[in-house]
Amino acid sequence: MSAHIIDGKQIANQLLDDIKNNIDQRLQAGKRAPCLAVVLVGDDPASAIYVRNKQLACEKVGIVSQAHRLPSTISQNDLFSLIQSLNQDPETDGILVQSPLPHHIDETAILALIDPAKDVDGFHPYNIGLLAVRQPQLRSCTPYGVIKMLQASGINLKGLDAVVVGVSNHVGRPMGLELLLAGCTVTSCHRHTKDLAAHVQRADLVVAAAGKPGLIKGEWIKPGAIVVDIGINRLPDGKLAGDVEFELAKSRAAYITPVPGGVGPMTVATLMENTLKALELREQA
Fold it and tell me: Which of 21, 94, 150, 222 could bridge across to 275 with cysteines, CB 3.0–4.6 Å?
């Protein structure tokens, strides 16, 4: 058996086409396009690439993109001031602060300062809370992108035993909440989990989000399981790898996502969807 490779890029492109059509209809009706403000602090090369990819997606769908490129020496108070001004700007619909931030900046405080109605990353405690009580609005991009990708692949999630490996605030925890909302029975695994292999071996759906290359052994995958690899790790030879031993896992799973080309494009597409939704929600308020 060889798994069906889920083409996240193709699914993301379809979502981007749908968003573009919606924005085109807005413009034809005399309404304005959404606006996304992206804040990049410092000159981290990977962060610069991520920001560029988001700007390209904005151009593709017709979202206005504001780039705020700041030196790594910026003070926390000055960054606070910028975010507060974006919160108050009626023409700015979404605010994204690219991680990681310099060590002298309190990232938790920065994310909490963003207006929840403009939190298109879906990281604000208010938005995570809405997801937890089954009233989601702006949802964390990567976890929600995973749900949309699986649904687009025709996978019924209801009743599946799902194991999420990794419990970060941005990915693992909201991923567990998304899977609960979708009707899965969810187990969250982390560094204190006693027998990771045993949990993975019984899972109908494995979501790897630990950021450790090859952590999930291919032989652990239950035959016919669904494997979603969110991990993206740069190896010493420069190649990218996920958290799952792909080749062996592929021979056992029914569905599997590649790295790259799996979850990553869905994260960006969902960010675009959130930006449009943020504008629509504010219009309805």
Answer: 94
